[in-house]
Amino acid sequence: MNILRLTLAAACLTTVASAQVTPIATETFEYPVPGLFHAMSGGTGWSNAWFVNGGANDDLVMFDNTITPSFPLSDGVGGHVGQANQFGGAFRQFDLAAHPELVDSAVNMWGADNNTIWVSFSTQYFQGMPQEHYGGLSLWKAGAADPEALFLGSPWNTMGWGIDDEGANGSPEVVVAGSDDSVAARLVYRIDFAPGNERLRLYIDPTTQYPTGPADLDEVIADLRFDEIRLSSGGNNGDAYFWDNIEFAKGVPTGGLGMNYCMPVVNSTGAAGAMSASGSSLVASNNVTLMAGDLPANAFGFFITSQTQSFVMNPGGSSGNLCLGGAIGRYVGAGQIQNSGAAGAISLALDLTMTPQPTGFVSVLPGETWNYQAWFRDTSPAGPTSNFTDGLQIDFQ
Are the beta carbons of 38 and 52 closer than 8 angstroms? Predict the structure, then answer.
């Protein structure tokens, strides 16, 4: 399972249209303290009780803030979990049948394409030395010969927050620069499942439960499937971590329109251009406004559209990635080619009855999916160039 950096670009990614985010599995560790949580079955969305390694099933045990050291992000509901014997694990499986749309029937695990899953938990490194340790939550494949699919938290000897792809290819870990695993943090991971590669975003201590802004880490990982979690930490110096308030959820936040896909290339601002939209997916409403942000200031650009997604690196010598294929229409009519101004943004209110295509204008129909992207002028060390935002998919009704 390869992790491809943003700077290397990524294969085309697709996710479902905007919907409400719904919790699908939770655990707040409302168990007796001090004590074991092996065989405990609290929380929601699980198919079995906790299994904890150790001779007395005590590799991880219950703590609360009457026990030193305290955990600043303990949610105050019951206790929290801490590592008692390093390298041991605690395992629990999901109730897959409760959310059949997430299940890849070929392997009977979560990870079906065109879905979004959120993984959130609070954690902190609390014991040991600031080197040669790890701690986090693994997405696991129960019973597999190589069960660990993806590690979330602080990978080995990084002392920061990120991911480690544990698949057969053994890709290097990726962490957020400047993050510190000795500082308690709420980690929120968003995984958009698509045909082929998946997109993963990490938000550290976000201000909202399901953030929508720029992520602290934005990576592309290869195909991911899982049906279980493992909590584990350890190191060469008796290292240990805390965990609390675990939540898995599905869907994307309401308020926006459509879903982003296809990784953009960073432009001359140091950021990557981003698509968004507002309005309604109801064709009858004819109310869609496209927006492109994080563009270079005072750069000209316009929107393009197609019913086909694709991925073409550096088309026509551009510095960016074209995320559309097939018949591509360009919004280049009167007033549609725009300047990004000082804000580095452009927007366009669409007329869904006048969607440009190479052979003329067509009307968007209910049940159709249309994809949008912005092309804009840019600069590079080699001189003038052009670039693209990411893609935006809208499923019309």
Answer: yes
Query: 229, 250, 271 — which closes off a domain?
Result: 250
Residues composing the chain:
397
Residues 239 and 382 occupy one common structural domain: no
What is the band of 6 on the pLDDT scale with cuts at 50, 70, 90? very low
Whether the link from the prior residue into 315 is cis, omega within 30° of 0, is no
Alpha helical stretches, state H, the chain: none
User: What are the tokens at 346?
Assistant: 């452009």
What SS3 state is found at 384? strand
* 243 and 274 together in one domain: no
Cα 153 to chain centroid distance, Å, stands at 14
Give the model confidence (pLDDT) of 35-51 as tens digits. 999 999 999 999 999 99
Where in the sequence is the domain holding 231, given as residue range(s)?
Answer: 3-250
What is the identity of the amino acid at 31?
Answer: Y
227 with 335, same domain? no
Output the domain CATH number for residue 307. Answer: 2.60.40
User: Which one-letter amino acid corresponds to residue 233?
Assistant: S
* Tokens 């655990």, located at residue: 27
230-273: pLDDT as tens digits: 999 999 999 999 999 999 999 877 556 888 888 888 899 988 89
Of 267, 292, 263, whose CA–CA distance to 387 is shortest? 267
Q: Which amino acid is at 266?
A: V
Tell me: do 175 and 147 sit in the same domain.
yes
Q: How far apart are CA 22 and CA 19, in angstroms?
A: 9
Residues 83 and 198 in one domain: yes
Token couple for 161? 């927050």
Q: What is the C-alpha separation between 224 and 137, in angstroms, rounded?
A: 15
Residues 51, 58 contacting (CB under 8 angstroms): no
- 277 and 303 inside one domain: yes
One-letter amino acid of 378: D
Last residue of a domain, one of 222, 250, 278: 250
pLDDT digits (tens, 9 = 90+) for 141-163: 999 999 999 999 999 999 999 99
Burial of 97 (0-12, 13-18, 19+ CB in 10 A): exposed
